[in-house]
Design brief:
Number of domains: 1
Shape: globular
Distance between the termini: 34 Å
Bound molecules: NADP nicotinamide-adenine-dinucleotide phosphate
Strand order of the largest sheet: 3-4-5-8-9-10-11-12
CATH superfamily: NADP-dependent oxidoreductase domain
Order of helices and strands: EEEHEHEEEHEHEHEHEHHHEHHH
Strand content: 15-25%
Radius of gyration: 19 Å
Number of helices: 12
Largest sheet: 8 strands, parallel
Length: 327
């Protein structure tokens, strides 16, 4: 697996990371044994950039990753996130107050069974706390050696610029894929100008860009896609038609649609690191093989023309939570 240095601060990661969220929530039933085997297989294959968050589970996803990496911590780059209050396992309000961040980081370190977090993201921007205070608090944790790099998730261009003034932002994590290209106008140029790398989450469109997507109503109630506007009714039909080009290019290249979706991201710049999520070794193997897929100008043109930024029907989150993005 090739490596990438997606930013100006020297952080080195594998060209593809592994999103661990789905091992504990969002898509289907957890299977810890297979998830841990998947994390071990990723390490064997040179994929060593693992993405988790306090909120995944909550808590149990970090514990799972900590368990999987026991005795192998030195081989991994761990990214986690803070951002909400919890009462037990019930998620409350956003909270990025400095004292809260400090407490959460100590708890994350305990769950991950490590003495340092390689990348600490603010999961969502908290409008109650100026971003300068957040950056200052993370900067102090970096000074203390508990955190190595600062990241933001789903932040807007103005927030990124202000944060970066106080503490260099190493990575922005946001949704980016062949069917979610909203960052291309403003955010991508803003981070490139500052040497900030991009971690592309949901690079497979939450599974839509693979050959396994189903209409919303066919997923169980606990599966996020049942509520994702892009998987609903007419949106699903329109999006399936638009994404047929991914299947066509995959057939031409004799690879899978998922590999095309990941290869497209890898072709968009050395500063982009997709973190496809899976809890299965067989799917991991398929996704990692995308690093060997070469797309030519004709493939890229067909994908771009068939899936321009405005091609997707439906917002990427339900309306009730969409406002938390890009601010
Ligand atoms: N910062 C944020 O707010 C945020 C939000 C969402 C996600 N994330 C991070 O980004 C990571 C990746 O995003 P994601 O998991 O939402 O979406 P994704 O990677 O686009 O898709 C994951 C879904 O696709 C399935 N899948 C993966 N590879 C496949 C393949 N080759 N063929 C068929 N199905 C395949 C997975 O199934 P199985 O699991 O059953 O294999 C899972 O249901 C997450 O794990 C998380 O760490 C961050």
């Amino acid at each position: 697996m090739p490596r990438r240095r997606p930013n100006g601060v020297g952080l080195e990661v594998s060209a593809l990371g592994l999103g661990c969220m789905g091992m504990s929530q969002t898509y289907g039933v957890p299977d810890d044994r297979e998830s841990i085997a998947t994390i071990h297989r990723a390490l064997e294959r040179g994929c060593f950039f693992f993405d988790t968050a306090e909120s995944y589970g909550p808590f149990v996803n970090e514990e799972l990753l900590g368990r999987a990496l026991r005795g192998r911590r030195e081989e991994a780059v761990i990214a986690t996130k803070f951002g909400w209050e919890y009462e037990g396992t019930r998620r409350g309000a956003l909270n990025s107050k400095p004292e809260h961040i400090r407490r959460v980081v100590d708890e994350c370190l305990g769950r991950l069974k490590t003495d340092r977090i390689d990348v600490l993201y603010q999961h969502r921007v908290d409008l109650e706390v100026p971003i300068e205070e957040v950056a200052g608090a993370v900067g102090e944790l970096i000074q203390a050696g508990k955190v190595l790099h600062f990241g933001l998730s789903e932040a807007g261009a103005g927030t990124i610029a202000r944060a970066h003034e106080v503490c260099p932002v190493a990575l922005l994590q946001t949704e980016y894929s062949l069917w979610e290209r909203h960052i291309e106008q403003e955010i991508l140029p803003a981070i490139r100008e500052r040497g900030i790398g991009l971690v592309a989450y949901s690079p497979l469109g939450r599974g839509f860009l693979t050959s396994t997507a189903l209409p919303a109503e066919e997923y169980p109630e606990s599966d996020y896609r049942r509520h994702d506007p892009r998987f609903q009714g007419d949106n699903f039909t329109a999006n399936t038609a638009a994404a047929s080009v991914v299947r066509e290019v995959a057939a031409r290249r004799e690879v899978t649609p998922a590999q095309i979706a990941l290869a497209w991201l890898l072709h968009r710049g050395e500063d982009i690191v997709p973190i496809p999520g899976t809890k299965r070794r067989v799917t991991l193997e398929e996704n990692l093989a995308a690093v060997d897929v070469v797309l030519d100008a004709e493939d890229l043109r067909r994908l771009d023309e068939a899936l321009p930024p405005e091609a997707v029907a439906g917002t990427r989150y339900p309306e009730a939570v969409m406002h938390m993005n890009g601010r």
